Amino acid sequence: MVKHIETTNEFKAETEKGLVLVDFFATWCGPCRMLAPVLEEIDQQNLTQAKIVKVDVDKVGDVAAKYHVQVIPTLVLLKDGVEIKRQSGFMPKNHLVNFINQ
Question: Which of 10, 14, 28, 67 is the most exposed place for a label (fewest CB within 10 A)?
Answer without folding.
Answer: 28
